[in-house]
Amino acid sequence: MTDFSLYFQLGWQHICNWEGYDHILFVTVLCGTYLLADWRKVLILVTAFTVGHSITLALSVLNIVHINTSLIEFLIPVTIVFTSLANILNKKRTNTTMRLNYSLALFFGLIHGMGFSNYLKSLLGTSTNIAAQLFAFNIGLEFGQVLIVISALLISYLLIRFTRMAHRDWTMFLSSAIFGIAFIMCIERFVLIKFR
Predict the structure, then answer these.
(1) Residue 105 lies in a domain
(2) What InterPro entries does the annotation carry (predicted)?
(3) Which of 2, 132, 142, 179 has its C-alpha lying 20 to 30 A from 82's C-alpha?
(4) 195 domain residue, yes or no
(5) Total structural domains in the chain?
(6) DSSP for the chain?
């Protein structure tokens, strides 16, 4: 297996791994207000998230940026709580809320990228030539995110179509459930923060 294939596979498997379900929750709630017909908008949204986490992933792996790991592990569920609340409180999607969503996805991607970096650093060890591995891992992460988005949009489509559930009701249910899970994660991780 080539280096590209290996790191691509590690990237998508990392984000789709249920042990790291916080990233799955974030991508799911990020597209929670959208329908299958909105797939282009969702793709742009997830790409904004990818751009954000690619920047900090690279900066962190290259040891340009150093941030307390336990703080990042706490901030990741905070991004999920915030996104869930935004879904619950925003009753209509306007151009302003769409721009805000893209900005938040980019900003929250910066936080998530630092979370991914610890995993990637452990794989790279002391290797100094990491550009190709970093690129392949990022492409793998994006592929994994697209798989999550497709799954979330298909599930919402099937539920709305076959149960006659209103789209807003589905958004409220999904966002509220994810909010509850992420809020518990925030509490659990807050006590683990070690300030330096």
Answers:
(1) yes
(2) Put_HupE_UreJ
(3) 142
(4) no
(5) 1
(6) --HHHHHHHHHHHHHH-GGGHHHHHHHHHHTTT--GGGHHHHHHHHHHHHHHHHHHHHHHHTTS----HHHHHHHHHHHHHHHHHHHHH--S--HHHHHHHHHHHHHHHHHHHHHHHHHHHHHHTT-S--HHHHHHHHHHHHHHHHHHHHHHHHHHHHHHHHH---HHHHHHHHHHHHHHHHHHHHHHHHTT----
